[in-house]
Known about the structure:
Largest sheet: 6 strands, mixed
Strand order of the largest sheet: 19-20-18-17-32-31
Amino acid sequence: MQFPSLLIAGLLATFPLLAADVAIHDVQGPGAESPRAGQSISTTGVVTARRTNGFFLQAPDTEADADPLTSEGVFVFTSSMPPSSAAVGNRVRVTGTVLEYRPSSDPASPPLTEIAGNPGVTFLSLGTALPSPVVLSAADLSPSTPSGRLERCEGMRVRVDSLLVVAPTGGTVDEANGTAMSNGVFFGVLTGTPRPFREAGADAGIALPAGSPCCVPRFDGNPERLRVDSDGLIGVAALDVAAGSTLAGLVGPLDYAYRTYTLLPESVPAVSGASTARAVPHPRSGELTVGFLNLEYFFDATPSAAGPTLTPEAYETRLKKASLAIRTILRTPGVLAVAEVESLPVLQALAARISADALAAGGNDPRYAAFLEEGNDQSGIDVGFLVAPAVRVGSVVQEGKATTYLDPVAGTAATLNDRPPLVLAARATAPDGTEVPFTVVVNHLRSLTGVAEDSSTGRRVRAKRQAQAEYLAGLLSRLQAASPDVPLLAVGDFNAFDVSDGLVDVLGTVRGAPAPADQVVVNRSVDLVDPDLVDLGAVDAFLPPAERYSYVFDGNAQLIDHVLASRAAAARVTGLAAARLGADFPETWRGDPARVERLTDHDGLVVRLRLGAGIGSSPAPPQPDPLTPAPRRARVLEEMP
């Protein structure tokens, strides 16, 4: 009689009896984290969707509770392809451990509730109707709604009747072949919601470094954004869409990834409309145009020690697209400043290609002269100029190549300017025959990568960005003081927003209006420019708020390419326009030689300056938007031959 009881006890120790099933809404609970976290449970539900590493489980409509704050869905993490028993429409029992998942790369991220721990899946029945999707409303995604409102739908089927795409489908770029593979991910807002823009302040999701001042503003991340992973479910193809597209009838489970609620469509939705490339206005008689374009890793087919070596076909595509963009979208400005070009021979090859294509199309040959100086960037990219013959060049001088800053981590001097500023001193002829001197400084400052990290990397990045901003402010101040009546423009990829990011106020420092010391982490707040430079992109008459972007990141439109003007230059400005050719278009269009779009991930900027008498601002009307809302070596100009 002893033997059976001992055997049963041993079996129970190896295979413990299951407790009663726990309802999914009790697994989720009403808050951000499960009250059952860390517990082994079993639950039942209907499989609503499958991923390559798990599946979504949801209670049938008849088993939902009355609490609007508890979700009826949950993700079951199997780590590999889910078992065949977990087919869509099957009712199954899942046994596993409740886990609050945070990515190892972002341990401070809000969590996603999962059932994990090598879960067991038991088939119960098939052919169960899928639960009805929850229709998302503007209130669910409103910035004024308490954060975490969508927690109530985590893991559940949801529906968006109409979604406006505000950030195109991304992807992985193959630099050598000049192509890209879609990742299927884009961002949208409910139709009728204004486009989200990067606002002032440090990201709300990051911890400020120790010793930060009291009053650093916070950016809420624009919760109105909805991330869509179009091929996140097994059997659903990636959807490549441009900003401005409208998607109808999106249905699928609501996931959470990269600190953003993410909809995984069950099928490819209907798509209508889209943004298209849009050119800047033609210059008017008596106007000089100055443009800027980040060409994004513009390398050739010759092997080099740094950067990619393109195939001949890829290089041909890049030359063709760049020529088309500069001629038809930027309107061949008199001066075109560029960033991320490999070398002077590459820029000269681009100039020759523009000439050949212009003549072949029956147009005028811009006969650009190319100027580029090698800098310090380890990846081999530099800034340069293309200058038309109507502009008489006095000098092109690289500044600050040997300048250093104090690395706060190593405690030693380090190179400050990876891509040192290049200063063009030139003259343009007015309609009456007089020559108008002007100066253009092209810049490409240190990127934002790593700036928010509370680590040695973050300290170094913040210190370098601040030191670069102060160096450039000093350079521009000296140029302005030396020739206050000569129009001065600072253009380029500043890798800084038009508002302070709360960590380093790069643009404010450069133009002479730094953020107050208690509102920025690196709080030197030194005003090095007098009079202040004018940020032309912040002038509504030139670039209205809905147009104020040159780049799109994480679904947020942002202006990181800028045109700063001295007072003498601002007095001559008649307009500023964005050349829409990169930021709004899917990454896979990069390799299409028939498209001008996505030559680069940036848009260009072109400013128009009046050369003749009657100086004053006469801005062009705003254009429509489908989304609604080293020692100094330069000669002074007066000494030019």
